[in-house]
Design a protein that fits this description.
The chain is α+β, with helices and mostly antiparallel strands. It folds into 2 domains: 164 residues, 2-Layer Sandwich (Ribosomal Protein S5, domain 2); 130 residues, Alpha-Beta Plaits (2-Layer Sandwich), CATH 3.30.70. Strands 1, 2, 3, 4, 5, 6 and 11 form a 7-stranded mixed sheet that branches. β5 and β6 form a beta hairpin. The longest helix has 20 residues. It binds L-homoserine (HSE). L-homoserine (HSE) binds next to β1, β2, α4 and α5.
């Protein structure tokens, strides 16, 4: 049997929604699994092709194996082929996409015994937090939280969705390093600041009225601390607004930056991306601009 899954990138936090919000993006990794093989094989092309593990530590393999184990089946030899388009260790959910792809593929190969909530639970067991795996699996903007291991979530399909710009610098930052930069305790005033912004942000995306998006994407809980690890971060965010963008923040744990531009002009979105890229360049950082959109579907079976 053969299966192919397309899994989207995701941008967590969106400024104030630290460990809580994630947005699926139309940048897809492809994962194919074939069971007609006697020799377990993993081939990876594209982003991280040389660096990512090709044995039992491979995240897609681990995720697929977890589904077989969850239904009490032995893991057969798998031929796995990945075509990666999501930059790795950049704050764009590349590991979440690898996990979700593996779970979806194995579940399909087994006749879809596991419901979506079970898949999400398995994804969180591997990833450790739901804010990337939830949008990668479900699509749209997903709000999530965990309580004693159980994930509770709801999905917003953004109204009047803006263009999305991702500026991906040419250096990697591991999530663990980016988390070590954070304080263990926060000020009550900073928590209140973020609660207010998060509520505004959810209203922007559910109403399609983005007037307050800039205000809504301000953060005091993680971005100011992580800015020290990402030269030019604040300048890139400022450049987005100076060019007419409507919102910008660090993407997940970084170092990529996400920006939003209203749908009125694709040209304006392209120009805004160039200005954001230039702001990184001024700080000596090479980067790639990616113009994309919000992915509404989450991971899908293909071909
Ligand atoms: N919410 C997580 C963080 C995202 O900011 O550390 C990691 O991808």
């Amino acid at each position: 049997m053969h299966v192919k899954v397309l899994t989207p990138a995701s941008s967590a936090n969106l400024g104030p929604g630290f460990d809580t919000l994630g947005l699926a993006l139309k940048i897809y990794n492809e994962l194919e699994i074939d069971t007609e093989t006697r020799i377990p094989t993993i081939e990876i092309e594209g982003e991280g092709g040389a660096a990512l593990p090709k044995g039992k530590q491979n995240l897609s393999y681990r995720a697929a194996a977890k589904v077989f184990e969850a239904v009490g089946e032995a893991v057969p030899p798998l031929y796995i082929r990945q075509l990666n388009r999501i930059p790795i260790a950049s704050g764009l959910g590349s590991s979440a996409a690898a996990i979700v792809g593996g779970l979806m593929a194995a579940n399909h190969l087994l006749g879809s015994p596991l419901a979506v909530d079970r898949l999400l639970g398995l994804a969180v067991e591997i990833e450790g937090h739901p804010d990337n795996v939830a949008p990668a699996l479900l699509g749209g903007l997903v709000v999530s939280g965990t309580d004693s291991g159980k994930v509770t979530w709801y999905q917003i399909q953004p109204d009047n969705p803006p263009y999305v710009i991702v500026i991906s610098p040419d250096f990697h930052l591991s999530t663990s390093r980016a988390r070590q930069a954070l304080p263990r305790r926060v000020l009550l005033a900073d928590a209140v600041h973020n609660m207010s912004r998060t509520a505004f942000l959810l209203n922007c995306f559910s109403s399609g009225d983005y007037r307050y998006l800039r205000f809504a994407m301000e953060d005091k809980l993680h971005q100011p601390y992580r800015a020290r690890l990402i030269p030019g971060l604040n300048a890139v965010i400022d450049a987005c607004y100076e060019a007419g963008g409507i919102g910008a923040a660090l993407s997940g744990a970084g170092p990529a930056v996400i920006g939003f531009v209203d749908r009125s002009s694709k040209e304006k979105a392209v120009e805004t991306a160039a200005k954001m890229q230039h702001a990184f360049a001024v700080h000596g950082i090479k980067s790639r601009p990616i113009l994309t959109e919000i992915c509404t579907t989450g991971a899908v079976l293909a071909g």
